[in-house]
């Protein structure tokens, strides 16, 4: 009798395991069941679009449902981050971003109440150096000249970024700290607007994403003098690094990854991770991403990306606080409008 009971228990447990596996499989097969929305926190036409739109197009074909890019700029990306954190956990609303929602936004914008746990990490997509650029008419030709001029006239040079705490604001903070110079931050509305302000020397320099800077450089409006990566970029081998220009140890890379709202079911996370892996292996997509100045850099797993992105976010938040971004925001947010 005891043996019979054990068999029944084993049978029941087996059924349970089969049922769980079946539910997971069915979830993956049925998903997605309608068009999907990919939120990004930047205006159309900028560096984020250059990554989001080709990958969204590829995912649409792979998943069999339209993936529509939804640009939600403003508030230093807090508007987009809030929309992503409060979306239904059904996998039909996703979020392409860097690490700012994993620490930096919370450190700088006290009104931003969402926490790093309010997002589900899925996969990193791309990585790239930022480009240090000045106006083509500027007398500054390289990093040593920039440092010399900044030290000779403290607070007389400005650097543009798309907003306080963003991925192209922090490298400027890091540069001023590492180079020992005082350069004033001027926030603009969007990743395209910042380098466009540098072109007529409204501001003197910017740390821009490759898509935002390259078009202006090709139009002979910007002069790119360095890359922010630790080593020379294979995409821009002719450009020296900031570290080569005399700022020892300087390094900053910019990346984009895919996130979802909190509580996203594991089968959907896995489906999206596998879809990301598949499309990022496509040679044509890789070519399009490289043309924008980015490199494909998929994660090994969603859990690996969750750990890596959170650790990166913590480091970025610490940098922002150490460099005084939070103090800047408290002092000026109520008195200065973004350009």
Could you walk me through the main structural features you see in this protein, from its secondary elements to its overall organization?
With 339 residues, the chain is α/β, with parallel strands linked by helices. It has 2 domains: 34-128 and 254-323, 3-Layer(aba) Sandwich (D-Maltodextrin-Binding Protein, domain 2); 129-253, D-Maltodextrin-Binding Protein, domain 2 (3-Layer(aba) Sandwich). 43% of the residues lie in helices and 17% in strands. It is built from 12 helices and 11 strands. It has helices at 2-30, 47-63, 78-85, 104-108, 143-152, 170-179, 193-198, 210-218, 266-279, 283-291, 302-323, 325-332, and strands spanning 36-40, 67-71, 93-97, 120-129, 131-135, 158-161, 184-187, 205-208, 222-227, 253-260, 295-296. It has a 6-stranded mixed β-sheet, with helices on both faces. It has a 5-stranded mixed β-sheet with strand order 7-6-8-5-9, with helices on both faces. Strand 6, helix 6 and strand 7 form a beta-alpha-beta unit. Helix 1 (2-30) crosses helix 9. The protein is globular and about 70 Å long. The termini are far apart. Mean pLDDT is 87; it is low at 19-24 and 330-339.
């Amino acid at each position: 009798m005891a043996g019979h009971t054990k068999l029944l228990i084993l049978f029941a447990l087996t059924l349970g395991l089969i049922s769980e596996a079946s539910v997971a499989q069915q979830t993956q097969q049925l998903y997605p069941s309608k068009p999907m929305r990919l939120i990004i926190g930047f205006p159309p036409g900028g560096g984020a679009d250059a990554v989001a739109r080709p990958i969204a197009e590829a995912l649409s074909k792979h998943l069999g449902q339209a993936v529509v890019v939804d640009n939600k700029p403003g508030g230093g990306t807090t508007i987009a981050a809030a929309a992503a954190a409060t979306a239904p956990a059904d996998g039909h609303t996703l979020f392409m971003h860097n690490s700012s929602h994993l620490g930096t936004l919370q450190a700088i914008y006290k009104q931003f109440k969402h926490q790093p746990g309010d997002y589900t990490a899925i996969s990193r997509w791309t990585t790239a150096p930022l480009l240090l650029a000045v106006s083509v008419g500027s007398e500054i030709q390289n990093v040593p000249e920039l440092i010399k001029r900044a030290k000779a006239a403290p607070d007389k040079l400005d650097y543009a970024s798309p907003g306080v705490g963003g991925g192209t604001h922090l490298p400027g903070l890091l540069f001023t700290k590492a180079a020992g110079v005082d350069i004033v931050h001027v926030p603009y509305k969007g990743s395209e607007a910042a380098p466009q302000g540098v072109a007529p020397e409204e501001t003197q320099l910017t740390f821009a994403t490759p898509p935002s800077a390259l078009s202006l450089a090709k139009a002979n409006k910007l002069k790119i003098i360095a890359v922010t990566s630790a080593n020379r970029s294979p995409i821009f081998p002719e450009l020296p690094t900031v570290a080569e220009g005399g700022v020892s140890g300087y390094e900053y890379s910019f990346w984009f990854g895919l996130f979802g709202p909190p509580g996203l079911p594991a089968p959907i996370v896995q489906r999206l991770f596998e879809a990301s892996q598949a499309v990022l292996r496509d040679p044509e997509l890789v070519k399009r991403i490289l043309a924008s100045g980015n490199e494909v850099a998929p994660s090994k797993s969603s859990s690996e990306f969750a750990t890596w992105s959170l650790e990166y976010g913590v480091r970025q938040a610490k940098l922002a606080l150490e460099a005084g971004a939070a103090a800047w925001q408290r002092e000026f947010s109520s008195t200065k409008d973004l350009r």
